[in-house]
Specification:
Layout lengths: L4 H16 L6 H44 L2 E2 L2 E2 L18 H14 L6 H14 L34 H4 L17 H4 L2 H17 L4 H26 L15 H11 L22 H10 L6 H10 L15 H14 L15 E4 L3 H18 L3 E4 L5 H7 L6 E4 L1 H9 L10 E4 L2 H6 L5
Parallel strand pairs: 3-5, 3-6, 4-5
Antiparallel strand pairs: 1-2
Length: 447
């Protein structure tokens, strides 16, 4: 009966589909298959170990047979394979006996210490990569060993134990450390202690040298004073010998500004950031505003004021981070007042267009605190500051805004209510400050 091709293809497809279909294997069957696999692996491992041991024994027997054949000469001839020629054919019968006797001596010497093939191979590898074994009696001393190169330190001095002059010369019995003087700097090597040390050295030289001691001592002192004057001139020229507080503003270098920022814990990020101010006189504030600052009682600026005021005076966006009570309110109020001073005053024509500046705070208490602080600086300059917070009627706040205000301090919720009820517009507001902005973001700008 002829084979049906379609039937064969159908059976093959069915077999492939059955093979591709995932088949559930019971737990007992899986454990049996795993045990068989583990047993097979163990058998293969034992077989491999036995095969390796058999191969090692064969190699040892081969090396032993070759060694025995090489160490058993008889009358100048060896019974082993003579495939390697050892000289001319005419010399085989008479002239090779001396060499054979020497070989027999070597063989007799090495008969007692037969080594395995692994030992021989290890010795060959060791001699190849490490060189021949020489200097078995090493004179290495642990006290004089060199330091490791990984430590990247090198000792250029002699070992103290190598000094033999102390035993023969009494001058070396008591050695004194002579520091001398160098062109290091005014504060370290040219202070009063350094001068006393140099004078003592000059006096010792003058006492020991009766003929030329006085001249040598005078030369040493002159060299010291000359070096000190040069160091002071160089320090004055470069400004390295003085603290930043003793320098003028134009004498400050990049190193001085870095030290200044480290002293006050100032860290800034951004491009073309101006240097912080060292005092109120270098702040760039108008004289009238500086008088108010001194009248209020601000003696020295705080770190946030030192860093933020120069940046804010350039009308740049700024984010300041500082702890509570560090003077953040004055840090943003003073540049705000400088900005408002350059704008036209509020009149009947523009007072209904809204304030010039808006300050947002998350809570009513903080708004009132900012208003109180702002009034200290705004009232002497003739600026009005109004607060818009919850807890007060909208009519009262609308009455406070009837004459306009340059600065408005508000909470986000009440500010939105005033804008929606047409009590306030921000048509000319272009200076926005958010105090404790992270807290307002967490609250979703809700009062």
């Amino acid at each position: 009966m002829p084979l049906d091709i379609e039937q064969i293809l159908k059976e093959r497809k069915a077999a492939e589909a059955a093979a591709a279909k995932p088949r559930f294997i019971p737990k007992a069957e899986r454990e049996r298959l795993a045990a068989e696999k583990l047993k097979k692996e163990e058998t293969d491992r034992k077989h491999k170990v036995a095969e390796e041991a058999r191969r090692r024994r064969d190699d040892e027997r081969k090396w032993e047979a070759r060694s025995n054949s090489a160490t058993a000469p008889t009358n100048g001839f060896s019974h082993g394979p003579a495939s390697i020629p050892t000289g001319p054919r005419a010399m085989h019968h008479g002239h090779g006996r001396g060499r054979d006797s020497r070989d027999s001596k070597k063989a007799e010497k090495g008969v007692g210490d037969k080594r395995s093939a692994e030992d021989i191979e290890a010795a060959l590898l060791r001699s190849r990569y490490l060189g021949p074994e020489v200097n078995q009696q090493s004179s290495f001393s642990a006290k004089k060993k060199r330091m490791r190169t990984t430590e990247k330190k090198f000792n250029f001095d002699w070992d103290a134990e190598d000094d033999t002059s102390r035993e023969h010369d009494h001058l070396y019995a008591e050695q004194s450390v002579n520091r001398g003087f160098t062109l290091a700097g005014v504060g370290g090597e040219y202070d009063d202690e350094a001068e006393r040390r140099v004078r003592k050295r000059a006096r010792i030289i003058e006492e020991r040298d009766a003929e030329n001691g006085r001249e040598r001592a005078r030369g040493i002192m002159q060299d010291f004073y000359r070096a000190r004057d040069k160091a002071r001139e160089r320090a004055e020229r470069t400004g390295l010998g003085r603290h930043w507080s003793d320098k003028k503003l134009d004498e400050m270098r990049e190193r001085d500004w870095r030290i200044f920022k480290e002293d006050f814990g100032i860290a800034t990020k951004g491009g073309s950031i101006p240097n912080p101010m060292r005092n109120w006189g270098e702040s760039g504030l108008p004289p009238r505003l500086l008088d108010i600052v001194h009248r209020v009682g601000y003696k020295e600026p705080t770190p946030i004021q030192r860093a933020a005021i120069p940046i804010a005076l350039q009308a740049r966006d700024l984010i300041g981070v500082a702890v509570t009570g560090s003077g953040k309110t004055a840090a943003f109020l003073l540049p705000l007042l400088v900005y408002i001073s350059d704008l036209p005053p509020l009149t009947e024509a523009n007072k209904n267009d809204g304030p010039y500046a808006l300050i947002l705070a998350p809570t009513r208490e903080l708004v009132q605190q900012i208003e109180t602080e702002a009034m200290k600086f705004a009232d002497p300059l003739g600026f009005r500051c109004v607060s818009i917070v919850g807890g007060h009627s909208l009519e009262e706040q609308a009455f406070a805004l009837r004459n306009g205000a340059e600065i408005i301090v508000a909470t986000p919720g009440r500010l939105v209510d005033c804008i929606e009820r047409r009590l306030l517009v921000l048509a000319q507001c272009c200076y926005v400050i958010m105090d404790e902005a992270d807290r307002m973001i967490d609250l979703g700008f809700e009062d």
